Amino acid sequence: MAIEIKQLAITYYPIPKSGSSSVKFALMALDGNQRALADPDNEVHGHLTTNYVDPFVAVYDGHKGKFTIVRDPLERLLSAYTSRISDARVLTRPTADKVKLEKFGIPVDPDFDTFIFNIEKYCACSWEIQFHVASPRYFTGCNLFLFEHVFKFEQMDKVEAFLSSVSGRALDMPRLQIGGRKISPSDLSPAALARAMRFCRYDYGFLVDHYDPQKWGGIPEGDAGDPSTLHVFGDPAALSDGRIVYPRTPRNLLHFMLKRPLVEPRISL
Predict the structure, then answer these.
(1) Are 179 and 84 in contact (CB under 8 A)?
(2) Cβ neighbours of residue 214 under 8 Å, at least 6 residues apart?
(3) Distance between CA 4 and CA 13 in Å, rounded?
(4) Which segments within the chain are labelled E, that is strand?
(5) Residue ranges covered by each domain of the chain
(6) DSSP per residue over 138-197, as a string?
(7) Contact 40, 21 (CB under 8 A)
(8) Digit-coded pLDDT (tens) for 20-56
(9) CA nearest to 24, candidates 175, 211, 199
(10) Single pTM value for the model
């Protein structure tokens, strides 16, 4: 479900790790719901939630003034790693699947190389990691042409100007979630960079009008079965040599499961 501010005729489709905390805080003020938050960086998401949509279907929901903010896929992935793994340490929380972590034999405080080469396992162990690294298409649908405004993360001043324009009052939008550890693509090993770009390959295709993967050396060749942001939702019952076995897309999960029943049929003679 998108965040609709009816009196302003605008609708925001938040994408994790793309400025959503700051925009949500501003929208609460514009909607007359601003309140004191002890931890605005995180509490704001309890008031205005971010929800999934079908990544293979365009969002025809009739909402007015649709806008979103997109971010360079690799930089978004690095931000998800530092904020969730390094800073929030989500793998030590009760929500993390300790049984799977132990079964996979993966650390709860991995460096980026360990994380990216085991990213499908980490997604299976933590819904928070899964949520923050999932393709932007899980939050906008498959067609950005339906949006009246698509802003880039590097141009938050334009988002601030847009919200000031539609509300008719000057808005000083705070910059939330800007603390913590930072890593850049230049900090990555060549192997980790290549793996990360493969993981983000479909997002660069989706955001072709906004970001060029050549900035980081392009998308290297690989196997069609390589993990990607579009298939972070694996079948947790299907493990092969310690690796998650994915349906090709979430959309054909039902077909996948029907072909591979969890209970084998009995044959009576």
Answers:
(1) no
(2) none
(3) 9
(4) 3-5, 10-12, 66-70, 149-152, 239-240, 243-244
(5) 3-231
(6) HHHBS-GGG-SEEEEGGGHHHHHHHHHHHHTS-------S--S----GGGS-HHHHHHHH
(7) yes
(8) 888 888 888 776 665 655 555 566 656 778 888 888 8
(9) 175
(10) 0.83
